[in-house]
Design a protein that fits this description.
Layout lengths: L5 H25 L4 H34 L8 H20 L6 E9 L8 H4 L12 E6 L2 E13 L7 H11 L2 H6 L6 E9 L14 E2 L11 E7 L4 H7 L14 H11 L4 H10 L5 E7 L5 E7 L6 E5 L2 E5 L11 E4 L11 H4 L2 E6 L9 E5 L12 E3 L15 H7 L1 H9 L3 E2 L13 E2 L8 H8 L5 E6 L2 H16 L6 E6 H8 L7 E7 L5 H12 L3 E6 L5 H5 L2 E4 L14 H21 L7 H19 L2 H11 L6 E5 L2 H17 L4 E4 L13 E6 L4 H16 L3 E7 L11 E4 L7 H22 L2 H19 L15 H19 L4
Parallel strand pairs: 17-18, 17-19, 19-20, 20-21, 22-23, 22-24, 24-25, 25-26
Antiparallel strand pairs: 1-3, 1-4, 2-3, 5-6, 6-7, 7-8, 8-12, 9-10, 9-11, 11-14, 12-13, 15-16
Helix pairs in contact: 1-2, 2-3, 3-5, 8-9, 12-18, 12-19, 14-18, 14-21, 15-16, 19-23, 20-23, 21-23, 24-25
Length: about 850
Amino acid sequence: MRDPDLAGRIEAILADVSPLVCRIESALEDQDGTAADMEEANAALVRLRDAVWAVKRDRLDTRDGVASLSTSGTPSDAGLVVLLSVQQALSAIDRLEVRGRDSAGLQVTVWNHGIDSDDPSLNARLDDPLHRSGSVRLLDFDGVTGGALAFVVKEAAEIGELGDNTAALRSALADDDLLLRALSAPTVEGSVLGHTRWASVGLISEPNAHPVDSMRADGLAEPLVTAVQNGDVDNHTDLVVTEDLSVAPEITTDAKVVPALCAAQLAAGHERLEAFRRTVSAFEGSLAIGAVTGDAPDRLLLALRGSGQGLYVGLAEDAFVVASEPYGVVELTADFVRMDGETPADPDDPGASRGQIVELDGALAGTLQGISRRSYDGRDLPVGDKDVARAEITTRDIDRGDYAHFLLKEISESPASVRATLRGRLVGPTSGEMGPGEGWRVRLGDSSLGPELRVRLADGTICRVLVIGQGTAAVAGEAVVESLNAELAGTGVLVEAMPATELSGFGLADDMTDTLVVAISQSGTTTDTNRTVDLVRARGAQVVAIVNRRNSDLVGRADGVIYTSDGRDVEMSVASTKAFYAQAVAGILLAAAVADACGAPGDPGRQEVLAGLRDLPLAMIEVLGLRDHVATIAAHHAPGRRYWAVVGSGPNLVAAREIRIKLSELCYKSIAADATEDKKHIDLSSEPMVLVCATGLVGSTADDVAKEVAIYKAHKAAPIVVADAGSSRFLGTHDLVAVPPVHPRLAFLLSTMVGHLFGYEAARAIDAQALPLRAAHAAIEAEAERRMADGMPVEGSAAGPVLADDLRDELRSAAAAFFDELRNGRL
């Protein structure tokens, strides 16, 4: 910050490094080293990318963020340290918004600030009983009234995009001259308490946005406490009555009882930690809570109870950073202590001892010595090195970039994920005229197929291959089976796909030494899959994992591993997409390697398939370019059609099953996935929208599918066909998505990509129908909040008009938009 030229010099160095990383990646794709060397090179490439990202995004961008917070003042060096904490908190909230974004808030508490408690600029901001954005609280710290100041900024908006709230908070902080004056003090110190929220209890409003404080509505003085909360206090209404908590009517969030009850416990004479323990022990529900008392702003109180929430205490250099997800702490540190809200400290008394309470001491920030932990019933729970876990991700893995949603980002990253999966494993021809051994080949080392497995394959001990997974991974397993069957044809090896739970429940044998199990998982932590792997290995089976996460649970359980992408291709969206493509591609590589290990002749068409794999990412990029066309079709059909189906034949049936999962997850519909020719025998009477996966089809098969599409149309269904560009069979189809032709064995992946894009755009089209209702709801809430703030009755009465003119106009506009949708049959 003090050297304005330093950032420029670093950026100049990075400008040379980034092209170097790309050249290394390209070289690895063509390198003909050993498989072990390539795996190590891939891991090193990940570390290099992490280092470049950390400098550019975690350091230089943080520097810019701090600068944006101090545009109207000059903070001291100590003030810059506080602003650094503020910037890091805003960055964490921005990442956590994916879990909730209708409101957000940040409290910045400073001491040694040099602001006189009689300062007019301060006094003008002390009287807001609702703790709205811009209010300030005086804290009795170090025995001095006003020894610390707590500044709060909040934003509440029912309609908005990811990033809007943190932008509003940042702007409010940057414009706060009083805060910047405090940060100019030479020895100022500070702490930050922030939150982002989905409103489950209470209106979406600034008074309900967290942090909330303990100020009573009746004006009675009590110790100051501020708090944030995830989860619901199920008994909050009872506590307001039984504990005589005076709450302003404008504050309807259940979180208000946290600081209010804690303040009452402090007023009753209980020590800070005991008051907090008594408070959280009174709550019913699964909860994660953070709180600060006015007399100790340098200490943070945390509580976690139940299975529905999480809290992670990051151990950074001279700092603690706490978040409800690991990706809220990884910008500062990879090391954290995970609080446990489920395991009872005393198994004989689980009700009272379940849950943990932690106090963090700012004087020992970043150290285990600064963490005091106890159970809900007050038992001491010492914290040691064994409690420290290490995150396997960085901010590079969880950055949304310029995309509006993580799902679109991850679909768009699928070509790169496939390319990374092939890197170092798919080796191209060594000469123009291919002789024996000079064509396309697959290279998997002992870390993927170990020596014992190769021996069992070569001598025929293994005569059965089972491919397992759950959800999308199980569907990808069906594609892997197609590849294995093509490569092992004529060998007598039985190949079968099934959900992991089907194998563990119904398919186990006492002796499974004749079995290779291929276990597929994106995260490597799928409980059902990992449990099944344990069961089959105990019976002598060999296990090869296709997994995305290095050092995950599944990796430790498997005899061999094929990492998809670079082994750390995190998906933030609940609907996983890019992993499917990489898993299917990894299955093709595995199938070729297994056939070679068996001494089988392999698939006669292997060369064409492998050559097609190399070109597949480019074809996927072309499909991404069809997004606008797909969006138009989705907006036309998805909102108005109640019943949906996805169909496909051959490999496209795998695509149909995967698309069905994503459409169900994204659009909250129960959707059928059927063989194309079977659909007319099932439920065409419902006149569904039918997404037809028809890529890679030729000859009579393509003709048959075209006839089926005509039958769908005759039954007033709405077929949407995904087919190869240049195919004449579907030219008369009104809604056609034409994708670039690829090898027929790979074409189903392009059908899948269109389906993923369709799901994203369909969800957006359906969601857009709710915008008029959201606008009406937001307008009504804003009017209610205004009336309560002005002391007016919320209901219409003689004291005022039932509806203000501007509100009436907003509701008319929203109603008109809603009824237009209703009349045109889209609702």
